[in-house]
Design a protein that fits this description.
Elements (H helix, E strand, L loop, with lengths): L17 E4 L2 E5 L6 E3 L2 H23 L5 H22 L3 E4 L8
Antiparallel strand pairs: 1-2, 2-3, 3-4
Helix pairs in contact: 1-2
Length: about 100
Amino acid sequence: MKCPSCQQVFRPSQVVDSRAHGVDVRFGCPHCRARLAVNGRATRIKLMGFVLMMAGSGVMLWAPERSWIFGSMVCIAGAVMAFSARRRELRLQWLDRPGSRDKG
């Protein structure tokens, strides 16, 4: 991941302080301590895409013979959703700068 504040690249294993509430994850950059967040909406869309891929696979496996076309269309739609949301999820949101908190 790349911090939008200091432009340093870091691995998720380097993050020390993080808070998660469902799929919304907020954490601090290990280099400059800027507060960052992962795009929660993109995470939800990615999960829905994977569910659609699994549902389409199930339709192709267990439904009657002629429904494999519908199952493949659902799989492709789910894959497009999942992969496009993954690209958007990798862009971090910058919540605040390192020195912007009031200390008092």
